[in-house]
Amino acid sequence: NNGNGNGNNNGGNGPRSAAPLFTSHNVCFPNIFSQALLQGDQPSSSSAYRPHTMITTSVRGHLATQDFPKEYGWNKCHPSALFHAPIETTYSPDMMPLKEMLERQSESVDAIILWLDCDREGEAIAWEVQQVCLSLDGNGNGHDGDNDNGDVRPRSRSRRQRARASILTPDRVYRAQFSTVLPQEIQRALHNLTRINMNFVHAVQARSEHDLRVGAAFTRFQTMRLQKLFDEFAL
Fold first, then answer.
1. pLDDT digits (tens, 9 = 90+) for 170-183
2. End-to-end CA distance of the chain
3. Which of 153, 160, 172, 187 could join 111 via S-S bond, C-beta 3.0 to 4.6 A?
4. What's the sign of the alpha-carbon dihedral 22, 23, 26, 29?
5. Residue 136 — pLDDT band, cuts 50, 70, 90?
6. How far lies 86's CA from each of 67, 80, 81, 92, 139, in Å?
């Protein structure tokens, strides 16, 4: 969420590098669960108003990073192998406080509204936030272990995560569509909650994978060629 409103700043209670939290009570808009998408992807028009308690925070762009496994490192494979190599999703150490804060907050909420930028990149980041809040990696696995580099990789879901998943599910994750941070625009968005546009998410993921594979393969190929050309200058 992109928070900008009245409430209590609880950021001092969490890790210093995590985002601040703002809690606002009695925020009235149509019952969030009555806005679940119906036939034809249209929100219900008979939603009753009710007060909600909203906890707002923010993220710093993409939470996760993608890279090749160790066995595809430099000098371990031919550059052409990178076009077919598996890609791993990891969380760098500097993102861990933010990721853990999102996971903790997700344990005590009934629903999530994603207020990321309304473009393709924002949609992809919204999807990453949803995966973290549901403790999923996209394949039903949790993120409760780390590797030798300190990066967190997906592992089996913990008992707590499995129990929480029975309450907070993708059906309780909503997407807010807005163009400006003005009161009337925020109210309009709260009246017309939607879902993440997976077409946008897949477009960003395809572009990201293309950039990673082509960029890494070309960089390694070029470096190897130049090394051979300038071997005579090696010390």
1. 888 999 999 888 98
2. 54
3. 172
4. positive
5. low
6. 9, 13, 10, 19, 15
Q: When comparing pLDDT for 35 and 18, which is higher? A: 18
SS3 182: coil
Averaged pLDDT score across all residues of the chain: 78
pLDDT of 35 reads 64
What pLDDT shows up at residue 187? 86
Residue 14 has pLDDT above 50, yes or no: no
142 sits in which H/E element: strand 142-146
**3-class secondary structure, 88:** strand
Per-position DSSP letters for 216-233, written without gaps between them: HHHHHHHHHHHHHHTGGG
Three-state helix/strand/coil letters over 25-85: EEEEEECHHHHCCCHHHCCCCCCCEEEEEEEECCCCCCCCEEECCHHHCCCCCCHHHHHCC
Q: Are 220 and 80 in contact (CB under 8 A)?
A: no
CA distance 155 to 22: 31
∠ CA 18-20-201, rounded to 5°: 70
Strand 173-175 and strand 112-114: pairing? Answer: parallel
